[in-house]
Amino acid sequence: MSGHSIYEPQNSIIQWLERRLPVASLVYSSFIVYPTPRNLNYWWTFGAILSFMLGVQIITGIVLAMHYTPHVDFAFDSVETIMRDVNYGWLLRYLHANGASFFFVAVYAHIARGMYYGSYKEPREVLWILGVILFLLMVVTGFMGYVLPWGQMSFWAATVITNLFSAFPIVGDPIVTWLWGGYAVGNPTLNRFYSLHYLLPFVIAGVVVLHVWALHVVGQNNPTGVEPKTEKDTVAFTPYATLKDAFFIGVFCLFLVWFVFYIPNYLGHSDNYIPANPSQTPTHIVPEWYYLPFYAILRAIPSKLFGVIALGGSIVLLAFLPWLDTSRVRSANYRPLYRQFLLIFFLVVIGLGYLGSKPPEGGYVIAGRILTVYYFAFLLIILPLLGLFEKTKPLPNSISEAVLRVGVPLGASAPPPSGGWA
Amino acid sequence: MNLHRSTILALAVAASLSAPCLRAALAQEQEVPPPPQRWSFAGPFGLYDPGQLQRGFKIYREVCSTCHGLKLLAFRNLADPGGAGFSEAQAEAIAAGFQVTDGPNDQGQMFQRPGRLADRFPPPFPNDQAARAALGGALPPDMSDLAKARSYERGFPWFIFDAITQYQEEGPDYIHAILNGYENPPAGFTLPPGAEYNKYFPGHAIGMPKPLSDGQVEYTDGTPTTVDQYGRDVAAFLAWASEPKLDERKRLGFQVFVYLIVLTGLLYFTKKRIWHEVKHQPELTEPRPPTEYRRS
């Protein structure tokens, strides 16, 4: 792309390495001179935040694994030993547990940004699908991690979630037995969850490499949704994006640190400090907060099988966004109707999250069904139709023009602008 | 303009959708929330009060330990910094007052010996079945994590404020409330056999008989010997038992906070300075590696 200068290392060792494995020039072209749109806002820093959080989770997780015992009789006590007797064990565990929550905060912000600015549209479909795969991997990894402390919520969450597969006719029960490694959630289940919980983060890291690779092929989207056209539209990744990302990682860490040091158990459930007891069911089994919207969708549907299908569909459908959204304008800033429907969609997801934490009775069920209908209607009906009927605002000719707030409108059907672009 | 319209629209939709839930929530509200207490360890700078933890430990030892274990704690923890503030000699003396099962010895027998600093608190019953048999079917929970394992529903919007006010003491508040919640059952409430009525216990029928009464445990420091005070002291002790690193956590937390605020501030101003030329000279945007970067 434009703006690439040829990398000519001065250091003789790097020159030697360059002729054999051009890793230095790869880093140079990907993270130093890589052109990024000059008008990116702070919503674009969540990619860097997510990479940072993946690193935090892997590092704290590896040390925690050195002290953890994956056995039904010792798991709970070994976590308590980490908290009480391992040097800074409390810090490692609280960082890891709250880090998981903040990982999801960041991924939801990242997905929301992608949806608002239409980042999934041509030519970024594969980039987007890789992102949905990453999100799915995160969901599975987070769930298995929550099972490891082997408290009441760990055990019962594992029971409820694995039991979902029994909804499928014929193959359901054998699948559940296969997942459990027995006829109930027990030691084999805990062992395999531990093994997979250690494995999947590295799978995530691998897919992140593909995600970043795809990103560097197609380039970043930006708030206007207009592709960079000249060098005026971009700035170099370093120092511009690097410093912006670093600053916002600092801001993000301030929130994380608030939770880790002052309210470390706020996001958890008190029942998970009770050791797992297969003969005593908690009054309300609730998943971690980041799964609550999907849990609400599951419970909104009266049939178990269709509930499970809706639960899976609510995530998998996101992968089809590039084709469900028929509009050719990317950014919601230029799509007044889409913008409103999308903001309602975000509120609906938050509402579903609230309902997911409530017992499935009375008004909660009715509200859950209404919001679930909107969730799917937005993706399957509103999005395809909007692209056909919506009158979009005129797009700027280029990013620099949008930044400078001047220029002639582009877009055939749109009226001329009456004011600023913002 | 656009923002306002869509926000109002979205809020209206959200409000109309949540109306039925609010009604359901109100209909459910019959549980009495525990009255909030003042805790020395609340807030960003709150630490444990060693005097209070020692009083709480006295209550645990004289009253609770008959039925409730404390298996995750060792006697050495009593002398840990940021805790009850016992000296090592005092903790050793306390340990020696407990009989601990050890062995097997050379003859292959298990035997009893006085406790040592490294020992964990011995369980009050050899197993759960023995506890149930002795207590008419009720199983007293281990108290090591009790203050973190008990909570109550805060509800909307309180749970949001809790994140800002750092309210983390649901467990101690609940324990204090339970100890002060024994009452005669209201008319029409039938208690199952062997249970007592407690205002704050979920379902109100609690298996534990009223454990504390005024003047039961002697205090030497002039603190009033009321059930209210006992409840607060033992709840504070259990808060420490469940979270013994709280002092260390909050001290380190403050240092991390100061460091991060300074670092983030520096990053902000560096970022602002570097972006200055982009914001103010739109035509000057040729990508340059950082080594070549000079302020224009």
Write out key terms for the chains shown.
heterodimer; A: 422 residues; mainly alpha; Cytochrome Bc1 Complex, Chain C; two-stranded antiparallel ribbon; 2 strands; globular; B: 296 residues; Cytochrome Bc1 Complex, Chain D, domain 2; two-stranded antiparallel sheet; 9 helices; disordered C terminus
How would you characterize this protein structure?
The complex is a heterodimer of chains A (422) and B (296). In chain A, 62% of the residues lie in helices and 1% in strands. Chain A has 422 residues and is mostly helical. Chain A has helices at 12-20, 23-31, 46-67, 75-84, 89-116, 125-147, 152-163, 172-180, 187-218, 237-262, 292-300, 304-316, 321-324, 336-356, 363-389, 399-404, and strands spanning 35-37, 234-236. Chain A has a domain at 24-290: Cytochrome Bc1 Complex, Chain C. In chain A, 44% of the residues are buried. The longest helix of chain A has 32 residues, at 187-218. With 296 residues, chain B is mainly α. Among the domains of chain B are: 32-73 and 137-244, Orthogonal Bundle (Cytochrome Bc1 Complex, Chain D, domain 2), CATH 1.10.760.10; 259-292. Chain B contains nine helices and four strands; from the N terminus they run H-H-H-E-E-H-H-H-H-E-E-H-H. Chain B has helices at residues 2-28, 50-62, 88-96, 128-134, 146-149, 158-165, 170-179, 227-242, 246-280, and strands at 99-102, 111-114, 196-197, 205-206. In chain B, the strands form two sheets. Chain B has a two-stranded antiparallel ribbon. In chain B, strands 3-4 form a two-stranded antiparallel sheet. Chain B is globular, with a radius of gyration of 28 Å. Chain B starts with a helix and ends in a 16-residue tail after the last helix. Classes of the chains: A mainly alpha (422), B mainly alpha (296). At the A-B interface, helix 4, helix 5, strand 2, helix 10 and helix 14 of A face helix 1 and helix 9 of B.
